[in-house]
Amino acid sequence: MVKNLSMNITRRTLLAGAAGTAAMSVLPTWAVAGDLSVAAIYTLPVEQQWIGRIHKALNAATGISYEYSENVSNTDYERVMREYAEKGVKLIVGEAFSVETGARKVAADYPDVAMLLGSSFGPEAPNFSVFDNFIHEPSYLTGMIAGAETKSNLIGMVGGFAIPEVNRLMHAFMAGALSVNADVKFLVTFINSWYDPPKAKESAFAMIDKGADVMYAERFGVSDAAQERGIKAIGNVIDTASDYPGTILASAIWHMEPTVNAAIAAVKGGTFTAEDYGIYSYMQHGGGSVIFDETLVPAEMVAQVTAKEAAIKDGSFVVEIDNEEPVSS
Could you tell me if 217 and 73 lie in one domain? Predict the structure, then answer.
């Protein structure tokens, strides 16, 4: 594996750059003999939950050779993209949230290299496709569990940055909680960092001191505070229940495999286009799921959540997307 060890653990600090439009154009057809060469570029370590889900999916993919660089600073991102493109990599996966302008410029300079990058903006022809973790649906389901569990009717929510990718998850969670408990209120804060567990933990402590008895752990550190204070927490993106026994009620899980597999198949088949792969994170496509601890969640709530999950998957219930910044109530 190729690893870039320049340390910078700030992802998506600003949604800078120009928004691409979704013009569609097919890339040249490649005759792929053997494994498809794939490279990923991450601005954080692969242990971080968002990055980790992408890394996991690429490691599990078949028919590819995979290498990656982690902890790549924003200032180095464009250079690393160019190095992989010059090396002959056919698919580059990564994140463009804080490097939109540079990433799109590289894509334009290498039209024969397929690009699949996390972005708040649209795809750009011919080769710049985008994705994101649309797990608002399982977030709604975890909200139902939290709304039923709280005794103080006060839930604390700690997020990284108030950007659409986080905002939509929080709003969906809040909607789910309110659907089962109209009296619930929320304390909302953002730590303005993607990886600062101590800061997230302190923010959680402050909310618990104000009476919150369930915590929404969008960031690492929140569940630590919940466990130390003997209250419950809701996980996000990955399953951390084994690290916090008796604390995590439920988690909204992101599965990047459907997105990665669709892109790989398109590149190998010569049909890759500039498009939005966000739909592959929806529950209907297997990109999101909810897990819960049945020893902590009452059977009647398990039944309600299971029924609502089925309704989401068959399309009879739609979880609304709200990208606006959530506020305390």
Answer: no
The answer to whether 214 touches 234, Cβ cutoff 8 Å, is: yes
Please, which residues bridge with residue 64 across strands? 36
pTM: 0.84
Regarding whether 48 and 153 lie in a shared domain, the answer is no
Are 196 and 306 found together in one domain?
A: yes
Q: Give the chain's domain count.
A: 2
pLDDT tens readout for residues 210-238: 999 999 999 999 999 999 999 999 999 99
Long-range contacts of 28-33 (CB under 8 A, 24+ apart): 28/112, 28/270, 29/270, 30/90, 30/112, 30/267, 30/268, 30/270, 32/90, 32/267, 32/268
| Bridge pairing between strands 288-292 and 248-254 | antiparallel
Is 232 a domain residue? yes
